[in-house]
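Q: Protein A?
A:
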Amino acid sequence: METPVFDILKKAVRNQEKGIAFVMATVVVGVEKTPGRSGFKLISYKDGSFEGTVGGGKLERIVLDECKKVHENKINSMHEYELTETSEGIGMACGGKAKVYFEYYAPTRKVYIFGAGHLCKSLVPIINSLGFYCIVVDNRENYASKKDIPLAKEVLVKDYLEYVSEFHPTENDAVIIFTHGHIHDFDILNKLCARNINPKYIGMIGSKIKVAQAVKKIKAKNHPGKLIEKVFAPIGLNIGKTTTQEIAIAIAAEVLAVYNGVQDIMFMKDKMK
C-alpha cells in the first residue's frame, strides 16, 4: 500500500530524532504518463529497506540503486530519467520523464548533557548552532526547564543514575558531565563505564586532582571495556578558560576536534612553519 507523503515526512523527522541515517528520494518533476507524480517521496535505509514510493516499477528499482550510491558517497544529486523503451530510456513503456532529487541525511549527533546549571546554559546555544541535538538532564525541577534552556531539544527532570541506566547513546553521540557541585559526576561516569557504552565523545569537568582520583577508583573496579581510557577530563581545550562562557567554548571546541578526527591541537599559524 502506498505510504502517504505526509507520513514519510513525519518518518524523516523521527529518523533524525533517533539518529538514523537515510536517503530521501523525491520526484521533483513527473510529466506525461509517469507512475510517480511530482512530490512522491521514498526513504531508503543503508540495509536496503525503504518506505514510501516514487511510483513503483523499474523507475523505483533504479531509484533504489541510486540511493545505495548516495548512502556511500553522501552527495546530494538530481537525476532525470526517460521512461521509454528507446535507447535513451530506462526500458519503460509508459513514456514521459521524471526528475528525482536524492538527499542524504546523516545520523543525528546527539549530546547528552548532565547538569542544567550556568555552564549548560552557556554551552547549549553553541552546541546547538553546530547541528547537535541537545538533551539536558538534571534532577532539579527548578533548573531543568525548557524555558531556561530553549535551544535544547529535550530538557528532562530525571534521577541521574536511573536515566544513565536506561538511555542508549550511540557511537555517534556525545556525553558531557558537569552536575551541580560535581556531586553526581563520579557516579554517572562510573555507571557509564559499568555499562560499557561507546559514545563518540565523553567528557567530565573537574580539577586535575579530582579527575585523577575518580579515574583511579573506576579503574580499580575492573569494568568491562576501555571507556575510562576515552574520557576527556578535565574537560575542554586549554584556552586559558575562566568564565562559564569560555569554558563552554573550550568544551565545544574539544567536541568538534574529536568528531573531526583531529589528533594534534595546535595554532593554525604554527602549521605554516
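Q: Protein B?
A:
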Amino acid sequence: MRIGIFSDVHANLEAMSAVMEAYAREEIDVYYCLGDVVGYGGSPNECSDLVRDIAEVTILGNHDAAVAGRMDYSYYYEAAREALDWHASELTGENMQWLKELPYKHRLEAIGVDLCHGSPVRLEEFEYIFAPDQAAECLPILNDLGHITLIGHSHLCKVFALRPGEVEELPPEDFVLQEGTKYIVSVGSVGQPRDYDNRASYTIYDSDTKTFLFKRIEYDIEGAASKIFEARLERNFGQRLFIGV
C-alpha cells in the first residue's frame, strides 16, 4: 500500500493544491494529514475543505487545537494569535466542528505506523522533535511505538533511528526501514517550510517495500502570500514563504 502523508498545510491553498497534483502522479492508495491545517495562511476554509475530502484521518495540530478552542494560546506571540482569531472567525461551522473532533494520535496497526503532530510523549503538549535529545525522550516508550512514527510540527524534514538506549539522526533522504530499528520521521511542511527550501514538502510510505520517500514541489508562492497580505495578517507570514524559513 502506498500512503501519502503530509503536514502543516497552514491555510496555504496554493501549496496544498500543488501537492495534490503531484500526488496524483504517484498512485497513492490513502492519504493522512498530521495536523495544522489552519494557522498563518490566507485560505483556512478552502484548505480545511480539501483536507477533509482527501485525508482518511487528520491528526490534531496545535494551531487546529487553538482555533477550535481546545487549548490556551494566550502565550503565542501577537501576530500568531491574531491569525488564529481570524481563522476562528472565518471557518464554517462544519470545518470548526471537524477541528473540534480531530484525534491526537492514530495507529495503523496492520503496518506498524503511528501518526501524531508532535512528539508521541505527552501528546497534548505538542512538543517538538528536531534534535536527537528530543527524540531520545521517546526511548522509554520504545516498545509502545510502531515501526515508524510520523510527525509534523517542526516544519522540518528529519529522520531519527531508535534502538534500545540509542538515537541516531539520519539524513532526510529516501530510506528503507530496517528490522530491529524504530523510526521517528518529521515530514516537513506543505504550507510553510522552514528549511530554506521554499518548495512544499510531502512524503510517501510504501508499506509493502517499507520504503519512505521525501518529495518537494514548487507552487505559486506569490499567490499564497498575496492572500495573507490581503487578509491583513502579519506580512512576515507571507514574506517567509519566499525563502522557506
